């Protein structure tokens, strides 16, 4: 699972570079994000702008990550492509997450 | 960079020289047998997408079909063949009324005589946030004529995916 992280004044940005978050990688994805976020504080923003396919296993992994992080470290999402946004909408999980159209400009500039 | 792009007209980008106004070409898209598994699912989905692109389907329909088949094939991997991988037969054909799909496996039967039709799991953050139970809901939302039959030692699932590109 190819992910990178950047620490900004707004929180930790985790960018997923794989195009698929599906059953084949859901567990690996969860573990990779957990490792990257370990020990930090503050908000975590998951940048999904390169992900063009996410199934219910991938969705489950995102929810599991949110639970792992706990309420002290809220998980927000950014850059959902249309197929990914559709899964969040169909399952009404778009009501659970703060979703940014893209990474806020002040986050792009920092780090 | 995530500015929404306009919907692709049917036939755009088809490598066989279709003009954007051509309707999708009907017929067999995929018929094959493979051994169940997450990576096999990926490979088969890629083949189906390739066939549908060639037939002239647009991005939105492609994404819908890929999601439905992924959920259905994930169920085969996770439930029917939870103990050990086994053979799966997938057929996908483009009809005038939609994409007809059939999945046959020889794994465990489904728990009831019909395919599951669950309500969405309860979502009540921060206490109740489900991590699973979405698959059949997604399939039911996006298909019609969903049928499940246990036939001897086989599970036979069939469904139709309504397509935007056929309704223009």
Automatic annotation (TrEMBL), chain A:
<dbReference type="InterPro" id="IPR002645">
    <property type="entry name" value="STAS_dom"/>
</dbReference>
<feature type="domain" description="STAS">
    <location>
        <begin position="2"/>
        <end position="110"/>
    </location>
</feature>
<dbReference type="Pfam" id="PF01740">
    <property type="entry name" value="STAS"/>
</dbReference>
<protein>
    <recommendedName>
        <fullName>Anti-sigma factor antagonist</fullName>
    </recommendedName>
</protein>
<dbReference type="InterPro" id="IPR003658">
    <property type="entry name" value="Anti-sigma_ant"/>
</dbReference>
<comment type="similarity">
    <text>Belongs to the anti-sigma-factor antagonist family.</text>
</comment>
<dbReference type="GO" id="GO:0043856">
    <property type="term" value="F:anti-sigma factor antagonist activity"/>
</dbReference>
<dbReference type="InterPro" id="IPR036513">
    <property type="entry name" value="STAS_dom_sf"/>
</dbReference>
UniProtKB/TrEMBL annotation, chain B:
<feature type="domain" description="Histidine kinase/HSP90-like ATPase">
    <location>
        <begin position="41"/>
        <end position="160"/>
    </location>
</feature>
<keyword id="KW-0418">Kinase</keyword>
<protein>
    <submittedName>
        <fullName>ATP-binding protein</fullName>
    </submittedName>
</protein>
<keyword id="KW-0067">ATP-binding</keyword>
<keyword id="KW-0808">Transferase</keyword>
<dbReference type="InterPro" id="IPR036890">
    <property type="entry name" value="HATPase_C_sf"/>
</dbReference>
<feature type="region of interest" description="Disordered">
    <location>
        <begin position="1"/>
        <end position="29"/>
    </location>
</feature>
<keyword id="KW-0723">Serine/threonine-protein kinase</keyword>
<dbReference type="GO" id="GO:0005524">
    <property type="term" value="F:ATP binding"/>
</dbReference>
<dbReference type="GO" id="GO:0004674">
    <property type="term" value="F:protein serine/threonine kinase activity"/>
</dbReference>
<dbReference type="InterPro" id="IPR003594">
    <property type="entry name" value="HATPase_dom"/>
</dbReference>
<dbReference type="Pfam" id="PF13581">
    <property type="entry name" value="HATPase_c_2"/>
</dbReference>
<dbReference type="InterPro" id="IPR050267">
    <property type="entry name" value="Anti-sigma-factor_SerPK"/>
</dbReference>
<keyword id="KW-0547">Nucleotide-binding</keyword>
């Amino acid at each position: 699972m190819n992910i990178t992280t950047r620490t900004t004044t707004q929180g930790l940005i985790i960018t997923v570079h794989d195009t698929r978050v599906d059953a084949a990688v859901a567990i690996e994805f969860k573990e990779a994000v957990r490792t990257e976020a370990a020990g930090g504080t503050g908000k975590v923003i998951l940048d999904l702008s390169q992900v063009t396919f996410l199934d219910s296993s991938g969705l489950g992994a995102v929810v599991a990550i949110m639970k792992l992080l706990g309420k002290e470290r809220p998980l927000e999402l950014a850059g959902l492509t249309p197929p990914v946004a559709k899964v969040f909408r169909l399952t009404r999980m778009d009501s659970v997450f703060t979703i940014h159209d893209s990474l806020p400009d002040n986050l792009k500039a920092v780090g | 960079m995530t500015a929404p792009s306009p919907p692709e007209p049917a036939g755009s980008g088809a490598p066989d020289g279709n003009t954007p106004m051509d309707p999708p070409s009907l017929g067999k898209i995929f018929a094959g047998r493979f051994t169940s598994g997450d990576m096999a699912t990926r490979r088969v989905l890629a083949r189906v997408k390739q066939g549908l692109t060639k037939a002239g389907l647009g991005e939105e329909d492609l994404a819908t079909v890929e999601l439905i088949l992924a959920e259905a094939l994930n169920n085969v991997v996770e439930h029917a063949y939870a103990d050990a991988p086994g053979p799966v037969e997938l057929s996908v054909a483009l009809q005038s009324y939609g994409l007809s799909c059939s999945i046959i496996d020889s794994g465990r039967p489904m728990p009831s005589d019909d395919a599951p039709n669950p309500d969405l799991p309860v979502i009540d953050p921060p206490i109740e946030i489900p991590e699973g139970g979405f698959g059949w809901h997604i399939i039911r939302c996006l298909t019609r004529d969903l049928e499940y039959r246990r036939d001897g030692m086989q599970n036979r699932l069939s469904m139709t995916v309504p397509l935007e590109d056929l309704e223009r």
